């Protein structure tokens, strides 16, 4: 395997530090987006009028 290969692995198949940082940054961005969706949904649910119970 070439040392400059883009997908090179660190020791024993684990990602090297740079790859791990990049992966964690992408994951954090994903979580931030999901958290924003949850916040928006909660705001809509809290602000929405409750339906009248049907009898």
Distance between the first and last residues' Cα: 71 Å
Number of strand elements: 0
So what's the overall shape?
A: rod-shaped
Largest sheet: none
SSE layout and pairing:
Elements lengths: L16 H31 L8
Tell me what the structure shows.
There is one protein chain. The chain has a domain at 14-45. It contains 1 helix and no strands. It has one helix at residues 17-47. The chain starts with 16 loop residues before the first helix and ends in an 8-residue tail after the last helix. The chain has 55 residues and is an all-alpha fold.
Question: Main attributes?
Answer:
mainly alpha; 55 residues; rod-shaped; 0% strand
A few lines on this structure:
56% of the residues lie in helices and 0% in strands.
């Amino acid at each position: 395997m070439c040392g400059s290969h883009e997908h090179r692995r660190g020791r024993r198949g684990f990602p090297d530090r740079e790859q791990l940082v990049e992966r964690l940054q992408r994951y954090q961005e994903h979580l931030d987006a999901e958290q924003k969706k949850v916040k928006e949904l909660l705001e809509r649910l809290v602000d929405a009028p409750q339906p009248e119970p049907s009898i």
